[in-house]
Amino acid sequence: MSTSLISGLPYMPSLHPVNAYSMHHLKYALDDLVSPGDIRTDCTDSALPGTLSACRLVGGGVMVIAALPAGCTVRHEWEHVAALESNDVLASIVLEGSGRVSQNGVDLDFNTGDVFYRKARMPSTVQNTTACRFVLLRFSFSRFNGAHTSRFERFMPTLARRDSPLRSTLWHYAHEVLPALAGDQSTSTIYHAEQAFVSLLSAAYAESQHAAPEALPAPARQEMRWDTLISTLDAMLCEPDLSVTQLSQALGISPRLVHRLFASHGHRYSNYLLERRLERAHADLCNQACSKLSVSDIGFRVGFNNASHFSRSFRHRYGVPPSALRSAAPVQA
């Protein structure tokens, strides 16, 4: 994590207000405290775009309490998160509001009281349908799962079970225990209370995964892995030198398993990657939202680092050069 903001934060339970006077300030703070990305909002009045307060966790990590307006979208693309060095977990408790979180092809609708989990170093999107307040914790996967680090391969974005006492306990903890800890407590009390919070988050996640994916039949597990693999590859298309090794590291699986998954679906990795890049470029060339991008820029944004190679590959696949398709195709919104 960057230390530009984090190093100046107090330790839990003391919360420090973070400057969020403009969208620029809000983005800067979220980039540093949560994960790099873009933030957009439908809010057109002069009100503040959101409020943030944060602290460091004694055992390692950050806690953020964020209030964000209705219509706010925070998007973490691969180009934002690729430089992150650690595979941290983002655990969010929804104090108020509703919306949707998406990661790895999984869309989860959340409401007040929900708890959702995702990886920091994996593209994701959080969209607020209404004004929302969150308690968000970011900490290492080793702290999240302790000795069970092999579970990282199977980590999936998920919601805590809504019928679970663990979920209601987390809700009570966020509303009642955290504010109470701000009193005159010893360092030892704070540390153990914080660790109890992290352990409850870990337990609620483990409970949500109890029937998946290890309890699924082998064919279903393979399909889940394949879906995750393809969603990750799509998110990383902008990387011109995207290799099996890079893809496997993002997923926490072996390169051998990546090759085996492609082979089991009748594909070779290099051929599939080229086809997906060309399909994405074709869609962008017909998309009104990309009309201000040059043909070369579209090639670069789907991972071609050479305009001539992009044009030749596109013409071989579709029978016309990309510039001709753009001129002839009806523009789609």
Description:
There is one protein chain. The protein has helices at residues 23-33, 78-81, 141-145, 165-180, 187-208, 218-235, 244-251, 255-264, 269-285, 295-301, 307-318, 322-328; strands spanning 16-18, 38-40, 51-56, 62-68, 73-76, 88-96, 99-103, 106-110, 115-119, 124-128, 132-140, 158-159. With 333 residues, the protein is of the alpha+beta class. It has three domains: 3-207, Jelly Rolls (Sandwich); 216-266; 269-326. A hairpin with a 2-residue loop joins β7 (99-103) and β8. The longest helix has 22 residues, at 187-208. It is globular.
Topology of this protein?
Elements: E1 16-18, H1 23-33, E2 38-40, E3 51-56, E4 62-68, E5 73-76, H2 78-81, E6 88-96, E7 99-103, E8 106-110, E9 115-119, E10 124-128, E11 132-140, H3 141-145, E12 158-159, H4 165-180, H5 187-208, H6 218-235, H7 244-251, H8 255-264, H9 269-285, H10 295-301, H11 307-318, H12 322-328
Antiparallel strand pairs: 1-3, 2-5, 3-4, 4-11, 5-10, 6-9, 6-11, 7-8, 7-10, 9-12
Helix pairs in contact: 4-5, 7-8, 9-10
